[in-house]
Amino acid sequence: MSAKKTALITGVTGQDGAYLAKLLLEKNYRVVGAVRRASTLNLPRLAALNIDRDVELQTLDVQDLTSIVRMIETIQPDEIYNLSGQSSPQASFQQPLYTGETSGLGTLRLLEAIRLMNARARFYQASSSEIFGQAQGDMQNEETDFRPKSPYGVAKLYAHWTVINYRQAYDLHASSGILFSHESPLRGMDFVTRKITATLAQIACGGQQMLMLGNLDNARDWGFAGDYVEAMWLMLQQRDADDYIIASGSTYKVRRFVTLAAAAMGIDIEFEGEGLKTRGIDKKTGRQMVGVSADFYRPSEPDPLVGDASKAHRILDWQPKIDFEKLVIMMAESDLERARNGQVWY
Fold first, then answer.
1. Cα(195)–Cα(198) distance, rounded to whole angstroms?
2. Which of 67, 134, 170, 334 has a CB 3.0–4.6 Å from the CB of 185, allowing a cystine?
3. pLDDT tens digits for 55-92?
4. pLDDT on residue 38
């Protein structure tokens, strides 16, 4: 029987980190989760998956090369999954320097630590469809030009090219997954999908607030995070490191997400008006439930992006299992249950 592998996950307390940790534990890995130093440690996502006692937690600052070297030396990981950094494109306009330090330079420090120590660890980088920004062609693949339109996208592109450089210059087994939007009931409230399902759930349970959104016609290629972390693991099992698009291959508008989520809660929403005057009306009661505000538009809106994951299908034998409609219903039902039980969950 082969020895148990050790995996280090930065960003383990996030959505992807939790699902990845669960997957690796099921594959009999020793999972070490790197967390930022804080006076209190909140682990709702790990707890939601019943793995909060199975993941070993270690303090790590990706802005400190010395602490990274020390951790790699201590735990001797076979695989490193870098999911850390400021994760919201919207927030990156308010926090551009922090985003660059964590999402961009943080990746460089991790790779430099591996190089300096001549470590055997295989490395996964969480890249993002935000590196494309201004869409080129009907679908984006691994050869599509990069034109990011947010500080987050710029930082992720720096990290993406750093992975390629270290792979070529130092022969590191370092791969990037260019993941398109992927959601789940564990998504944070600062993402529009979770904002939609959580707010509608509160309304369905008698709340008086209104769901305020930005551009309802923004289209996204949405998939399930639980499916996408499997692709991360598959990349590090390949003989050769490479970069892969991970996507569903279909796009849906925000208003479609709202309509499906509401329907899953027994609410039939009909939209009227255009632009900032758009309103979402409950057809049964006539009550306005959805409004649009310019405050929620990005300074630079990305073009609709749809990913071509044919390379991942062919080489990794990866296929998503949860489609868009099932994803929305899953999130809506989860938040409705939380609202009914009076749970506050972020």
1. 5
2. 334
3. 999 999 888 999 999 999 999 999 999 998 776 676 77
4. 59
Going by DSSP bridges, is the β-strand pair 79-82/56-59 parallel, antiparallel, or unpaired? unpaired
> CA torsion angle for 103, 33, 181, 190 (degrees, to 10)?
-80
Given its phi and psi angles, is residue 245 left (phi above 0), alpha (psi -120 to 50 degrees) or beta?
Answer: beta
Give the least confident one: 30-34, 87-91, 120-124, 142-146: 87-91
Structure tokens at 6: 């050790």
Q: Are 26 and 16 in contact (CB under 8 A)?
A: no
- Answer yes or no: are the C-beta atoms of 151 and 100 closer than 8 Å: yes
For residue 228, give both structure tokens: 């996408």
> What per-residue confidence (pLDDT) applies to 39?
39
Kindly write down the DSSP assignment for every residue of 23-56, as one continuous string: HHHHTT-EEEEEE---SS---HHHHHTT-TTTSE
Torsion of CA 231, 236, 239, 241, to 10 degrees: 90
DSSP β-ladder status, 182-183 and 56-59? unpaired
- What is the model's pLDDT at position 87? 62
| End-to-end Cα, the chain, rounded Å | 41
Edge-to-edge, what's the strand order for the sheet holding 211-213?
Answer: 211-213, 288-292, 279-282, 269-272
The pTM score is 0.93
Report the distance separating Cα 266 and Cα 339, nearest Å: 14
Distance CA 218, CA 272 (A): 17
- 258 Cβ contact list (under 8 Å, min separation 6): 196, 200, 211, 213, 216, 269, 280, 290
Residue with tokens 């130092």, as numbered in its chain? 170
Residue type, 204: A
